[in-house]
Amino acid sequence: MERIDKPQGPPPNYLVWAILTTIFCCLPFGIVSIVFAAQVNSKWIAEDYQGAMNASKNAKIWAWVSFGVAIAGFILYMALVVLGIAAGFWADAIDW
Q: Is 0.85 surpassed by the pTM of this model?
């Protein structure tokens, strides 16, 4: 087994971002991000540098997924509100 030299410093764990996206965005995907973010430092200390970098990458990806799902949900919600308002105006415009 080939030994990997220790990089300069640990990769970012994105824990704060993971927590914020869990609270404000999408809970299930944010939790996945928190799990990966929590693994970064422990893998780094265990000298699993590749594992720490992969966990960091996954934490970032899942935080973005959580954020993207929240934005998509907000856009869908606003579209439904606009359609509801338009339907209300259309129903009032027709003389039943």
A: no
